[in-house]
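Form P-L/3: holo structure prediction, ligand beta-D-glucopyranose.
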Amino acid sequence: MVGACIRQKKRKVCVFLQKERLVFLGRKKGCDTARQERFWKREDICDMRKKWWHDLVGYQIYPKSFQDSNEDGIGDIPGIIRRLDYLQELGINMLWVCPVYRSPMMDHGYDISDYTQVDPMFGTNRDLEELIRKAKERGITVIMDLVINHTSSEHPWFLEACRDPEGKYGQYYIIRKGKEGQPPNNWRSLFGGSAWEPIGESGYFYLHLFTKGQPDLNWDNEALRRELYQMINGWLEMGIGGFRIDAIAHIKKDLSGGNVPADGPDGLGNGMRFFRNMEGIEAYLQELKENTFQRYDCFTLAEVDDIPDSRLDAYIGEDGYYCTVFDFCHCHHNLRDGEWEGRGEEMLLDIRDRVFARQKAMCGRGFFCNYQENHDMTRIPDRFLKKEDQNFYSMSMLPVLYFYLAGIPMVYQGQEIGMTGFDRNSMEEYADPATFGIYRDYLMQGMTEEAALHKINASIREHSRTPMQWSGEKYAGFSQSEPWFACNPGYPSCNVERQQADENSLLCFFKKVIALRRNSDYQETWIYGSFTALEEDSAQLWSFERSLAGQRLQIFVNLTGREALTKSEVHGTVLLDNYGELAEADGRLALKAWQAVVVKAGEQQE
Ligand code: BGC
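OUTPUT (holo model):
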């Protein structure tokens, strides 16, 4: 590195240029859409065909809790429309809307009883069309949830299957004869209890990996697959930009193996290795893509845990099954629960190493969808930071950890204002059947009610489902009526209105994070640049470089509440800083507690 000269006032630093080669290879034959038009080749990145969705920055909406418009205490589609200006101002250009189809709401919409209709709770199909149109006018693509591992137990197919388990619709589900009144095997459902439910007195059982209101579909049945493809294409015809594909890793099951080792006194056990990413699933994924997504050049984002590095090309490579997938490598970390309890610093370093390893494996081959929160996990400040450490600096460094990684960034509603969870005093304050299933399993394992509630408070996904905190008004500006699920009592101090009025708020910083990610001067590097981990042996820093065609963008984040010094000198222009002032010592950065900066390296400026 050349000599250091970070100038605080002008916030410019001196030069270091590294030459890189970028060759434009022109149009490739056989491109099926006008948008897929260019190929670039770099020395350190494999060929990557540009696609229209590469520049997406997403925002996930959990509709029940986003904005109520008809004052029934439940969020709805007209409510989302009302907030489109807010979303546009935030700077995102893709919306993922969790399920709004007709549903008995056993799993809050992930149990669909009619794939073609919007549930009246959320509005009408017309409302959805209006949302798509109005979002488009603002440059925002809408994607919907696609739940095709299971339906609701009230779907007409399933009702018919129960009437005649051996008939046509019986073949749409995974239905087996029990053994002497007992289920076909001892798999535990992902939401607690047996994964099998008897069909009345018939002697038959159906499989449900999730709640018993979500019977699993039988993907080995071609007739079923054809019906699903038709439904998917119907939505794509209607103009949606694509899908977030739910639980798709589970569509193939191996039922030949019998029981698994019991993991509790109830004799049930974890059968995951027989129903996740099973051999043979590839044929279904390829067929699904060819019959639907590919025909519309739509955006697909799949929920697939645990894809080994060696399989990434098949999943998200140029001709992969999906455009992108969520990677789960940080999802099981929670300093309030499990193996990381009370070990926050070590945990963040472990996450860093895992995320960087996945970046190295994936960058240049495809795109991960990077995220920190969603409706299935507790809020990120609660998982990553101790309560006493939660402040503007620590909360604002969080988005910098992931927004500039290679891949597509996704924000979950309320994350941008730092919404958190809160402990409940009794189980009655919870609303999710999955929570109760898990609670029952804890009791069955011998936990006291108090200990089980403590664990639920520390880890349950419902914490991210409280109503969006729009203002300090009653019910947080979410609704005039009592919401379906109680607001976080902290809403008078943590809400959108308040943060909009304060230029030093988390919300205003978040907007800067997004704006830098979408800034046309740097966007190519964020999207197509190589990934290099920096100072990997540091016990305090999360730092990496993205580079393309001579442009080098470096991220330095202090993961601790103590000052941290970079090992190497750093030279360049500061593009983002959550403190607004950056200290240096002999050319090295001296980062304050939780300080996060983005530096454009190697550019001589006066
Ligand atoms: C969704 C959950 C849902 C489950 C069953 C998950 O992947 O994100 O919210 O409960 O699938 O559909």
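COMMENT: The first strand starts at residue 22 and ends at 26.
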